[in-house]
Amino acid sequence: MYRFKKKDLVVWHGQVGPVKNRFDSAEGYTYVLHWYTPSGELKIDGEVTFGQIVAELNSWARFCVGDKFELGPHERIIKARWWNPRRGTVMYRVADARDPRRSMVVDQETLVKKVEAYAEVGT
After folding, report:
1. Strand 9-12 to 15-25 pairing
2. How far apart, in whole angstroms, are the C-alpha atoms of residue 42 and residue 46?
3. Which of 121, 70, 117, 118 is nearest to 98 (CA)?
4. Which of 6, 41, 74, 85 is the most exposed, fewest CB within 10 Å of its CB?
Protein backbone atom coordinates (compact mmCIF):
# COMPACT_ATOMS: atom_id res chain seq x y z
CA MET A 1 0.00 0.00 0.00
CA TYR A 2 1.38 3.38 -0.97
CA ARG A 3 1.32 6.26 1.48
CA PHE A 4 2.58 9.80 1.61
CA LYS A 5 5.14 10.77 4.24
CA LYS A 6 5.34 13.96 6.22
CA LYS A 7 6.75 16.78 4.09
CA ASP A 8 5.84 15.04 0.80
CA LEU A 9 4.39 17.55 -1.64
CA VAL A 10 0.78 16.90 -2.69
CA VAL A 11 -2.00 18.84 -4.43
CA TRP A 12 -4.91 20.02 -2.33
CA HIS A 13 -7.52 22.60 -3.39
CA GLY A 14 -5.46 23.42 -6.48
CA GLN A 15 -2.30 24.20 -4.50
CA VAL A 16 0.89 22.19 -4.07
CA GLY A 17 1.91 21.94 -0.44
CA PRO A 18 3.53 19.59 2.07
CA VAL A 19 1.82 16.92 4.15
CA LYS A 20 1.88 18.34 7.67
CA ASN A 21 1.07 15.10 9.48
CA ARG A 22 -0.14 11.53 8.89
CA PHE A 23 -2.28 9.32 11.12
CA ASP A 24 -2.96 5.60 10.91
CA SER A 25 -6.62 4.60 11.20
CA ALA A 26 -8.63 1.42 10.63
CA GLU A 27 -9.53 2.51 7.07
CA GLY A 28 -6.02 3.58 6.14
CA TYR A 29 -3.99 6.73 6.52
CA THR A 30 -5.46 10.19 6.99
CA TYR A 31 -3.45 13.34 6.42
CA VAL A 32 -3.33 16.89 7.75
CA LEU A 33 -2.98 19.45 4.94
CA HIS A 34 -2.79 23.25 5.05
CA TRP A 35 -4.07 25.44 2.21
CA TYR A 36 -4.91 29.08 1.66
CA THR A 37 -8.10 30.69 0.41
CA PRO A 38 -7.85 33.29 -2.39
CA SER A 39 -8.03 36.00 0.30
CA GLY A 40 -4.93 34.51 2.00
CA GLU A 41 -6.67 32.87 4.95
CA LEU A 42 -5.07 29.65 6.23
CA LYS A 43 -7.34 26.59 6.23
CA ILE A 44 -6.42 23.27 7.85
CA ASP A 45 -8.00 19.99 6.72
CA GLY A 46 -7.33 17.31 9.31
CA GLU A 47 -8.89 14.15 7.92
CA VAL A 48 -7.95 13.96 4.26
CA THR A 49 -7.86 10.42 2.89
CA PHE A 50 -5.41 8.97 0.40
CA GLY A 51 -8.22 8.66 -2.17
CA GLN A 52 -9.07 12.35 -1.90
CA ILE A 53 -5.45 13.31 -2.51
CA VAL A 54 -5.21 10.97 -5.51
CA ALA A 55 -8.39 12.49 -6.97
CA GLU A 56 -6.81 15.96 -6.69
CA LEU A 57 -3.60 14.69 -8.30
CA ASN A 58 -5.58 13.23 -11.23
CA SER A 59 -7.40 16.51 -11.79
CA TRP A 60 -4.08 18.41 -11.58
CA ALA A 61 -2.49 16.36 -14.39
CA ARG A 62 -2.78 17.91 -17.86
CA PHE A 63 -2.24 14.72 -19.89
CA CYS A 64 -3.52 11.15 -19.59
CA VAL A 65 -1.82 7.88 -20.48
CA GLY A 66 -2.42 7.25 -24.18
CA ASP A 67 -2.71 10.92 -25.19
CA LYS A 68 -1.05 11.67 -28.53
CA PHE A 69 0.36 15.02 -29.62
CA GLU A 70 2.79 16.51 -32.12
CA LEU A 71 6.20 17.46 -30.77
CA GLY A 72 8.80 18.01 -33.42
CA PRO A 73 8.56 16.06 -36.65
CA HIS A 74 7.08 13.00 -34.94
CA GLU A 75 3.91 12.15 -33.08
CA ARG A 76 4.47 11.45 -29.37
CA ILE A 77 2.42 9.37 -26.95
CA ILE A 78 2.17 9.40 -23.15
CA LYS A 79 3.17 5.94 -21.93
CA ALA A 80 3.12 6.50 -18.14
CA ARG A 81 2.25 9.18 -15.59
CA TRP A 82 3.12 9.43 -11.90
CA TRP A 83 3.36 11.97 -9.09
CA ASN A 84 6.78 12.99 -7.80
CA PRO A 85 6.25 13.88 -4.11
CA ARG A 86 9.73 15.39 -3.73
CA ARG A 87 9.40 17.86 -6.60
CA GLY A 88 5.64 18.34 -6.34
CA THR A 89 4.90 17.73 -10.00
CA VAL A 90 3.47 15.17 -12.39
CA MET A 91 6.09 13.21 -14.34
CA TYR A 92 5.44 11.67 -17.77
CA ARG A 93 7.16 9.02 -19.86
CA VAL A 94 6.78 10.27 -23.42
CA ALA A 95 7.56 7.89 -26.27
CA ASP A 96 7.96 8.31 -29.99
CA ALA A 97 4.84 6.81 -31.62
CA ARG A 98 6.97 5.18 -34.36
CA ASP A 99 9.55 3.70 -31.98
CA PRO A 100 8.17 3.12 -28.43
CA ARG A 101 11.63 2.11 -27.16
CA ARG A 102 12.74 5.72 -27.56
CA SER A 103 11.24 7.58 -24.63
CA MET A 104 12.02 10.44 -22.31
CA VAL A 105 10.90 11.32 -18.80
CA VAL A 106 9.76 14.91 -18.41
CA ASP A 107 7.89 16.92 -15.78
CA GLN A 108 4.51 18.47 -16.50
CA GLU A 109 5.63 22.11 -16.66
CA THR A 110 8.38 21.38 -19.17
CA LEU A 111 6.11 19.21 -21.31
CA VAL A 112 3.36 21.85 -21.41
CA LYS A 113 5.91 24.51 -22.44
CA LYS A 114 7.31 22.28 -25.21
CA VAL A 115 3.87 21.40 -26.58
CA GLU A 116 2.70 25.03 -26.53
CA ALA A 117 5.95 26.27 -28.15
CA TYR A 118 5.65 23.69 -30.93
CA ALA A 119 1.97 24.55 -31.44
CA GLU A 120 2.91 28.24 -31.93
CA VAL A 121 5.68 27.39 -34.40
CA GLY A 122 3.59 24.79 -36.23
CA THR A 123 0.64 27.12 -36.89
Report:
1. antiparallel
2. 13
3. 70
4. 41
For the chain, the C-alpha Rg in angstroms (whole number) is 17
d(CA 51, CA 55): 6
- Please count the residues of the chain: 123
pLDDT one-digit tens code per residue, 1-32: 578 999 999 999 999 999 999 999 887 899 99
**Cβ neighbours of 105 (radius 10 Å):** 12
3-state secondary structure at position 117: helix
- Residue of 48, 10, 55 lying closest to 31 (CA atoms): 48
Domain boundaries of the chain, sorted by first residue: 9-60, 68-122
Phi-psi map region of 72: left, alpha, beta (phi>0 left; psi -120 to 50 alpha): left
pTM metric for this prediction: 0.85
Q: Report how far residue 74's alpha carbon sits from residue 104's, in angstroms, rounded to the nearest whole number.
A: 14
